Amino acid sequence: MQIDDETLMALADGELDQAEAARVSAAVARDPQAQARLRLFTETRARLQILSSAAPAPSDKDLIARIRAASSAVQVSGSVAPTAPPLSATPPMPANANRAPWAALAAAVTAAVVGLAWWQMGAPAGLPQAEVAALDSLPSGQVTELGDGRDLTMIASYRTAEGAFCREYETEQDAGMTVSVACRQGDRWQRQFASDMTASDGYVPASGDIAALDDWLAETGAGDPLTPEDEAAALAD
Amino acid sequence: MDPAFGEALITLLPNLRRYALSLARRADLADDLVQTTVERAIRAAGSYDPAARLEPWLFRITRNAFIDLTRRQRTEGVQVDVFDIPEALPDDGDRAVEARLMLQATQQAMKTLPPEQAEILHLICIEELSYAEAAEVLDIPKGTVMSRLSRARLALAERLGIK
Fold it and tell me: Tell me: the pLDDT tens digits for B67-99?
């Protein structure tokens, strides 16, 4: 009987049920070639298993404290959110890759995200002049002041399946943050999508929690973000 | 949040960091990923089914966070050099030299595998997920897990000179 690699591997990994394992083991016992193949699978696993004990050990003290705080906070209060310690008034750093997950952590337990509002399509066409200016020229990853107390962070540019040039950006003011996508239509920008994220105590969700944005990107067939070069070319159009 | 959930999460922090490191291949990014995972896990604790194992549920969060991170990073033009990996091993000197060499050879071989092969090896052989659990984390059919894993095992064996 010829035993295929995947079956041998499943045997080595303990993925076969008892009857199957017994049957395959018996066949392997009669087949030196299969024994050698089986050894490839058991040996690779054994080598890798050693790596599991070689984990780096940075201090998780802070993380552990956060998790324990989260456990006890809700236990005490039941359904009503207890008062969270006030967060720093400074808004999270608008770093593109990492939106200060720490700031969110403490509040995450208690802060229900309030006022999650959607407009989709048919949004009012007139965007503030400062936003239009940013859409026209600001490269992704950069921040600009809108002049009305808000900051605008350009996140990414996309091409939809229909070829429209669209840009994702965030505007922040105090505790509030709005994620928007605007697409260029002729020489105008039309806001296609916006989501307000405002929290009770200054909690701004980390980027990437915005599942609906990903849905929108998928719906419109927008692929990966444009590279800086492609984006610059599109802006120059 | 259930305190038992919190304690289970704490127990798995080393596993999370290890998995994050295997994805991001950079210690600083791995730390960010672990923090994001913890944050999201706390927030989503209510949607975790206590009957299921916690590892696949957490790994999936980590993986989604990583995909999100790379999507954002591409817009910054930041390139992650996959070979620029800080040595994850403590230099304790306790380990037998031979074992250390073997371990380093395995780590080195993992770095030269295609990322999707290294990832599936990590989930199943290091984190000891079942095929079904890995399929759930990676969002692929179990059959694909098996074919990818078997190719990855043979590729690793070849690099390590296992015959």
Answer: 888 777 655 544 444 344 344 444 444 446 777
Give the closest residue to B132 by CA, choosing from A12, A52, A15. A15
Pick the residue of B16, B43, B100, B148 with the most A CBs within 10 A to test the interface with A by mutation: B43
For B13-70, the pLDDT digits (tens) are: 999 999 998 888 888 888 889 999 999 999 999 889 988 899 999 999 999 888 888 7
Instruction: Let me know: does B21 contact B88? Beta carbons within 8 Å.
Output: yes
- Which residues on chain A are in Cβ contact (under 8 Å) with B21? 56
Taking CB atoms and an 8 Å limit, are A40 and B162 in contact across chains? yes
Q: Which pTM was predicted?
A: 0.52
Q: Is the pLDDT at A209 greater than 60, yes or no?
A: no
Which of A82-86, A155-159, B17-21, B49-53 comes out lowest in average pLDDT? A82-86
Which pLDDT score is estimated for A116? 39
Judging contacts by C-beta atoms under 8 Å, the chain B residues touching residue A50 are: 99, 102-103, 106
Q: What is the DSSP string of chain B?
A: --HHHHHHHHHTHHHHHHHHHHHH-SHHHHHHHHHHHHHHHHHTGGG--TTS-HHHHHHHHHHHHHHHHHHHHHHHTPPP-TT-----S---S-S-HHHHHHHHHHHHHHHHS-HHHHHHHIIIIIS---HHHHHHHHTS-HHHHHHHHHHHHHHHHHHHT--
CA distances in angstroms from A185 to A127, A159, A182, A189, listed in the order given: 13, 12, 9, 6
User: Which residues fall within 8 angstroms of residue A88, CB to CB, at 6 or more apart?
Assistant: A103, A202
To test the contact with chain A by mutation, choose from B25, B31, B67, B72 the residue with the greatest count of A C-beta atoms within 10 A, namely B72
Residue A103: CB atoms within 10 Å: 20
Ranges of beta strands (E only) in A77-175 are 113-120, 143-145, 151-159, 165-173
